[in-house]
Design a protein that fits this description.
The complex is a heterodimer. Chain A is mainly alpha-helical. Chain A has one domain. Helix content of chain A is 74%, strand content 0%. Chain A is built from 3 helices and no strands. By secondary structure, chain B is mainly α. Chain B has 2 domains: 39 residues, no CATH class; 106 residues, no CATH class. Helix content of chain B is 72%, strand content 0%. Chain B has 5 helices and no strands. In chain B, helix 1 packs across helix 4, helix 3 runs antiparallel to helix 4 and helix 4 packs antiparallel against helix 5. At the A-B interface, helix 1 and helix 3 of A face helix 3 and helix 4 of B.
């Protein structure tokens, strides 16, 4: 990024802003996942709670992986390719699965 | 196709559909078509021409902002469950589930709106209008008022 000194460099820093947006979103996901883990372990470590806990951690890792792959595309390509629908859907599905996990935990 | 009859229903491809009149059914049809597109990158890519990558990235950031909103709602659901233990069970679980459901809706809408915007940009059409932001604001306001009420009442009883 900082070594990119080409003359037609995008003055709006679009890839950087998008990269930071992915980072922010991961941060929000981290907070939600931590709250989910807290909810899961609130009433002692029962087997069901541990499974829910592991599931939340897996979802968080999945989102982290999506972020990592997208950021790599954004930072390595000269003109970054647009987000693929599958990637976007996977990110949204991670969020939805976390909510489903939460609904199961809250009950 | 050139008659331009008011209320005529067309699919996303601009082909008129017979027998569909109500706007909600149109919405339903286009939603189902969009769900197919979520998983089919090559179909989106066949459409129109590739827009300036900056527009695509802006669309992506908007998508991520909506995803953050969804995550915040989901986190709020967990927070209601965890940090308001004095509430009665029904209120607490009801509010938590409502927030979680709002988070699910928000992320579904995020990806759907992203696909629609992406396709509109490729085809050079206007970006899709949406009443979802207004709807979400109203829901959040109602939930906030409900929270104030529930916290006040719940701590008495």
């Amino acid at each position: 990024m900082s070594e990119d000194t080409s003359a037609d460099r995008d003055p709006g820093l679009q890839p950087e802003r998008t990269r930071l947006a992915w980072r922010r979103t991961t941060l929000s996901g981290t907070v939600s996942a931590l709250l989910a883990v807290k909810t899961a372990l609130h009433s002692g470590p029962s087997p069901a709670a541990l499974v829910a806990c592991a599931l939340c951690c897996a979802l968080w890792l999945g989102f982290l992986l999506l972020t990592h792959r997208r950021i790599r595309t954004l930072t390595t390509a000269d003109t970054p390719s647009p987000l693929t629908p599958r990637h976007a859907t996977a990110a949204a599905l991670c969020t939805i699965a976390l909510a489903a996990c939460g609904a199961a935990l809250v009950f | 196709m050139g008659t331009g009859r008011a209320g005529g229903v067309r699919t996303a491809e601009g082909v008129p559909v017979e027998g569909l009149r109500a706007p909600d059914r149109v919405l339903h049809v286009s939603f189902v078509q969009n769900v197919r597109l979520w998983f089919a990158p090559e179909e989106v890519r066949q459409d129109g021409r590739t827009p300036d990558y900056r527009f695509s990235l802006a669309n992506e950031r908007t998508f991520l902002a909506w995803l953050r909103t969804a995550l915040a709602l989901i986190g709020g659901g967990f927070a209601v469950d965890q940090f308001l233990p004095d509430l009665r069970w029904g209120w607490r679980v009801g509010l938590a589930l409502a927030l979680l459901a709002a988070g699910v809706l928000c992320s579904l809408r995020a990806v759907n709106h992203w696909v629609r915007c992406e396709r509109a940009m490729r085809r050079g059409e206007d970006l899709p209008a949406s009443r979802f932001p207004a709807l979400l604001s109203v829901v959040v306001a109602v939930v906030a008022v409900a929270m104030v009420f529930v916290v006040l009442v719940g701590w008495e009883g």
